[in-house]
Amino acid sequence: MRTAAVIGTGLIGTSAALALTGRGVAVYLEDADPDAARTAAALGAGSTELPEGPVDLAIVAVPPALVGKVLADCQRRGLARCYTDVASVKAGPRAEVAALGCDTVHYIGGHPMAGRERSGPLAARADLFEGRPWVLTPTGDTDTDTLNAALELVALCGAMPIVMDATAHDRAVALVSHAPQLVSSIVAARLEHADETAVRLSGQGVRDVTRIAASNPALWVDILSANAGVVADILQEVAADLDEAVTALRALQAADEGERRAGAAGIEAVMRRGNTGHARIPGKHGAPPTRYESVTVVLGDQPGELGRLFGEVGALGVNIEDVTIEHSDGQQVGHVHLDVAPSAVRLLTGGLRDRGWSVRD
């Protein structure tokens, strides 16, 4: 791939453009908002000039509802030899593409499973897709050159290609992305009018659950509108689980001991189902989940402290599998949770304490 065009310079489009320009591909940028395209160009994502002839691949990076219309316009102009999109829903855009009479031989649907809570070109990163799944949804019409062009795009962005049927993709992302987004937002919404004292007690649990609630509402309305039925089905199942949990919690307050036991069993059952579901989420490098143990270090809020901690962990010969930071409200300290192999816990704890670090038991 020597040339590419990116139509839509938001987070995903600009990130793809940055990745491609970093690999020596000449990228041409377009956006309905010229300021957004100019901003992406200023970041080094490409040029806002028109290409002299058809580019090797055009990447349509617009909301799902606009994919068909934008693709039809690009093909009418002869912008590229091959086309793909990065919309987070696939079946609806594919149907519209067919209804508009677009060339489906040289088009393949795509969806990189990556994003951030922030949007727009200024939030873009060249490494956004590294190590992330990138779904491709070819049809019987898709020719080999188009599939290969999309696979090359995925490789240049450092992502992992996964080929799926469009309808199966939409069911999957409803379960692992779209419904969780709404659940996160619903939980966070309970904090909107909460007492300030209660909010100040927020710990890592509520931060983890509500992290994606900071996402752009307008963007998500576009996404959810294109997959509303499937997401509604999943949320209806979640609502049924919530109803059962409410019933079980009420039973825990009952005077009758039998009812209390039934309530406890109900809560335990749903939490055990959660344990089982969580254990199915792929672990490091896509391998089966591994059980790590957490070592908690109290860290002062001074420049270089985190780097010094990581350096000392490395000097001890311990590999950090994951890390989270829990900030203290009102104090200039934080708690760094280092996930390591169980066999490394004693070495790491003792070694850090010997070096003067405060390690929590």
UniProtKB/TrEMBL annotation:
The keyword Oxidoreductase applies. It comes from the Bacteria. Coiled coil: none annotated. Pathway: Amino-acid biosynthesis. Keywords: Amino-acid biosynthesis, Aromatic amino acid biosynthesis, Oxidoreductase. Residues 2-283 form the Prephenate/arogenate dehydrogenase domain. The keyword Phosphoprotein does not apply. PANTHER family: PREPHENATE DEHYDROGENASE, PREPHENATE DEHYDROGENASE [NADP(+)]. Belongs to the prephenate/arogenate dehydrogenase family. This is Prephenate dehydrogenase. It comes from Kitasatospora arboriphila.
